[in-house]
Design brief:
It contains three helices and three strands, in the order αββαβα. β1 and β2 form a beta hairpin.
Amino acid sequence: MPKNKTHSGAKKRFRLTGTGKVMREQAGARHLFEHKSSRVTRRLASDQVVSPADAPKIKKLLGK
């Protein structure tokens, strides 16, 4: 049988923790920081847990 390939876009955007949770980066943290407050940029810097409804699909894309 051929092997399943990991989805290249998914592996760049998501990662799994040791306990199996799917983590993602917060959107809006790439540019236009001039008008964003320091509080907002600090909040955007932390990783977020993917919603439970989306987690199984993302795990499948990651081959887990």
